[in-house]
Design brief:
Strand content: under 5%
Shape: globular
Strand order of the largest sheet: 1-2
Distance between the termini: 60 Å
Helix content: over 70%
Largest sheet: 2 strands, antiparallel
Length: 447
């Protein structure tokens, strides 16, 4: 009975991400790209100028969290196990062509991300903890006349705020590579998640800004080292990527082959899931920023999508260049580790540590969002119920197949994507697509 239920969910997942999800992201992303005259490309200098400006200047506002720390909290929720494990699993299932759709999602999705973060800040409200509350449940009030839409999205974000897939991957990786007791790993990791999540966005931002930069640089450097050892093979690999993106890929080695739909579905869904495009999590996190200018924080959101896509690309190219992607019998969490082990020692130590750091940053960022959403649903009983749901879900999926947890996240993400993208489309005229040098604060913002 259970296997039949999950089979139906897999069919729904394939149909949505192969047809509906692709159409929604592509249509809105292309529409915004054309209507804004390729804003995400023109904004490249402004993105880095904004980032450097936030580094140099300290906000005078006492409310909210430093924009750079918020940026790393946002990146912490995006750059996680999905960039290393989930994205390489997409290649195992969809073939090399999935990489092309990862790139497409990054290009058009960055503008969608800009829009949802901008709207989150534009319609945020001050809270009694010295910060802000914002996100899709607030800006969707402006898009729809019915309050139940905001409530439904908030409820789904509570489900989405628990990340059982990444929790299960960390548990499996640490208990297997370090030969630790599985129950000890579960209890320890769960305690760390509850500690960080209960501290809200400020605590999550502080943790992520301290640990993520080092491991991001280390992982990208190691991946480049492997890729550069296969420089002569890169042209053929890229040719395979572009060809199989539109034709599918024949069976080879342990890889059973794939169709164009499978390439689209796995590339698009994995990139959208990894980059949190259209889901709403990032809008909630970044709404806590001290800056009073929504477009500035939204430009950092574009940078976040680019970084997320870069990490995804590095992971995919590592398994493509080494040929290990053809071994579909290897668990996704071991693909990159096995590939890097051919060039670096002690990967059984480094990779579990890396997965723990990036996975933990994602877990606490999502958990924090879930707590904010549960409080929105019910100020008194929302958070206690969310804690109970979170503990049960994380422990339950720690003893089940990782792909089942990932399937749950992708389906909930699909429902959020539909609602949020429609809302963003309705509110598209409320978003200011301005560059740094074009910006002039409005009377409302100055006051």
């Amino acid at each position: 009975m259970t296997s039949y239920f999950f089979h139906l969910l897999e069919l729904a997942d394939t149909f949505f991400w192969g047809y509906i999800g692709f159409a929604l992201i592509a249509c809105l992303g292309i529409y915004l790209t054309i209507s804004t005259n390729f804003f995400q490309i023109r904004a490249i200098p402004s993105v880095f100028k904004t980032f450097i400006g936030f580094l140099r200047q300290q906000s005078q506002s006492e409310r909210g969290v430093d924009p750079i720390k918020i940026f790393f909290a946002s990146v912490g929720g995006m750059i996680g196990i999905g960039n290393i494990v989930g994205i390489t699993t997409a290649i195992q299932l969809g073939g090399p062509g999935a990489l092309f759709w990862v790139w497409v999602t990054g290009i058009i999705g960055s503008l969608v991300k800009y829009s949802e973060v901008y709207l989150g800040l534009k319609y945020r409200v001050p809270n009694d903890k010295g910060g802000y509350d914002g996100g899709p449940m607030y800006f969707l009030r402006q898009a729809f006349d019915y309050r139940f839409v905001s409530v439904a999205v908030c409820f789904m974000l509570c489900i989405y705020g628990i990340e059982p897939y990444q929790f299960a991957v960390i548990t499996d990786t640490l208990s297997t590579n370090w030969n630790l007791n599985r129950y000890f790993v579960i209890i320890t990791l769960l305690s760390l998640v509850l500690y960080a999540g209960s501290g809200g966005v400020p605590r999550v931002a502080k943790i992520c800004s301290r640990v993520l930069p080092f491991f991001m640089i280390a992982y990208v450097s190691m991946s480049l080292w492997v890729i550069l050892h296969h420089t002569l093979e890169i042209p053929q690999i890229l040719l395979n990527v572009f060809t199989s993106a539109f034709t599918g890929h024949a069976a080879i080695g342990g890889f059973v082959g794939s169709t164009m739909i499978l390439a689209i579905k796995n590339g698009l869904s994995s990139a959208a899931y990894s980059g949190d495009i259209g889901v709403g999590y990032d809008s909630i996190i970044q709404s806590e920023s001290k800056t009073i200018y929504p477009e500035r924080q939204a430009r950092l959101a574009i940078l976040g999508v680019w970084l997320d896509n870069l990490i995804c690309t590095m992971s995919i190219l590592v398994v493509l260049t080494t040929g290990i992607w053809k071994n579909t019998y290897v668990e996704g969490s071991m693909l990159v580790q096995n590939a890097l082990s051919e060039y670096f020692p002690f990967m059984h130590i480094f990779m579990p540590t890396l997965l723990f750091i990036v996975g933990y940053s994602t877990l606490i960022a999502y958990f924090c969002v879930g707590l904010k959403c549960s409080h929105y649903l019910h100020p008194r009983y929302g958070k206690p119920l969310f804690y109970l749901y979170g503990v049960f879900t994380l422990v339950f999926f720690s003893f089940h197949d990782q792909t089942k947890a990932l399937l749950l996240m992708r389906l909930v993400g699909a429902l959020l994507l539909i609602t949020n993208l429609v809302g963003i489309f309705f509110l598209r005229d409320k978003v200011a697509y301005t560059l740094e040098e074009e910006y002039a604060p409005s009377i409302e913002e100055r006051t």
